């Protein structure tokens, strides 16, 4: 079982309601929101710009997320409580099309969604807050956003330490987000921590909280992305593993076979 820090677990009594009109479909051990990229991005903006803000959790799950969920009941329960869980990885899209051929499946990639929303959001309605990464990456991220998406309204950011936060730290951080007026909080704390955090945020604040993985690094250009042809062919994992073998070995060498087993085991 993959160890997860205890305070990041959200008990089932905090279960969030799946938005009406967003049915889920099981791929492996996770229930996914079937959607094309255009629909997913519009839904995120609609939630963030709603006249009556509410807490919404948005996840992007790939083969590694499915592998983790297969082996950890707490993480599996958490992901299946998410308001939206989009297909972040190409192999997951392939599995979705095979298991549920009548649904609309398309890759809804966290970094691409982040860029699209930053580019297309109304600065009078959508107020962005960033949570995660290092001060160095966050500084470069803010610079890139101002250059590439000048109309995006950034109201704050936070780079928490790489450890489990105290209750006092969480309370202080939540207050900063609340006072900023943020309508959407982009969370890049790594898997699985960021998934627990977006649901915690959605429970305590009226924001759309989005777990976006490596989006901060990619937009800040501190980590290069795989070429588009590798992304669309399902080979992005090989590119990333070759560049960061020590950090990503478990994610891919353990996660990919576990993903395949999970899909086969849980197919209906």
Q: How would you write the strand order of the largest sheet?
A: 4-3-8-7-5-6
The percent range for helix content is: 40-55%
Strand content: 5-15%
Q: What's the helix-strand series?
A: EEHEHHEHHEHEHEHEHHHH
Distance between the termini: 24 Å
Count the beta strands: 8
Average pLDDT rating: 89
- Indicate the radius of gyration in whole angstroms: 17 Å
Largest sheet: 6 strands, parallel
Instruction: Indicate the low-confidence ranges by residue numbers.
Output: 1-21
Structural class: alpha/beta
Q: Can you count the helices?
A: 12
Shape: globular
Short description:
The protein has 12 helices and 8 strands.
Topology:
Blueprint: E1 24-27, E2 30-33, H1 37-48, E3 56-61, H2 63-71, H3 73-79, E4 84-87, H4 90-99, H5 110-120, E5 127-132, H6 135-148, E6 153-158, H7 167-180, E7 184-188, H8 193-204, E8 208-211, H9 215-220, H10 228-232, H11 236-243, H12 245-266
Parallel strand pairs: 3-4, 3-8, 5-6, 5-7, 7-8
Antiparallel strand pairs: 1-2
Helix pairs in contact: 2-3, 2-12, 11-12
């Amino acid at each position: 079982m993959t160890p997860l820090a205890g305070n990041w677990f959200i008990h089932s009594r905090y279960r969030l309601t799946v938005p009406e009109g967003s049915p889920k479909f099981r791929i492996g051990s996770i229930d996914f929101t079937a959607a094309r990229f255009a629909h997913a991005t519009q839904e995120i903006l609609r939630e963030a710009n709603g006249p009556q803000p509410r807490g919404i959790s948005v996840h992007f799950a790939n083969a590694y997320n499915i592998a983790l969920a297969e082996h950890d009941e707490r993480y599996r329960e958490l992901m299946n409580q998410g308001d939206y869980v989009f297909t972040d990885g190409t192999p997951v899209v392939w599995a979705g099309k095979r298991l549920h051929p009548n649904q609309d499946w398309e890759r809804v990639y966290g970094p691409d969604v982040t860029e699209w929303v930053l580019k297309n959001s109304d600065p009078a309605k959508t107020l962005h807050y960033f949570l995660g990464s290092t001060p160095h990456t966050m500084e470069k991220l803010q610079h890139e956003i101002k250059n590439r998406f000048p109309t995006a309204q950034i109201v704050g950011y936070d780079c928490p330490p790489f450890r489990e936060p105290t209750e006092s730290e969480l309370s202080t951080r939540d207050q900063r987000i609340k006072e900023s007026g943020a309508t959407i909080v982009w969370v890049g704390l790594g898997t699985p921590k960021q998934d627990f955090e977006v649901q915690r945020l959605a429970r305590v604040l009226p924001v759309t909280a989005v777990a976006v993985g490596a989006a901060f690094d990619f937009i800040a250009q501190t980590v290069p992305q795989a070429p588009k042809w590798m992304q669309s062919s399902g080979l992005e994992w090989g590119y990333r593993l070759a560049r960061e073998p020590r950090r990503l070995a478990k994610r891919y060498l353990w996660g990919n076979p576990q993903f395949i087993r999970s899909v086969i085991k849980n197919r209906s």
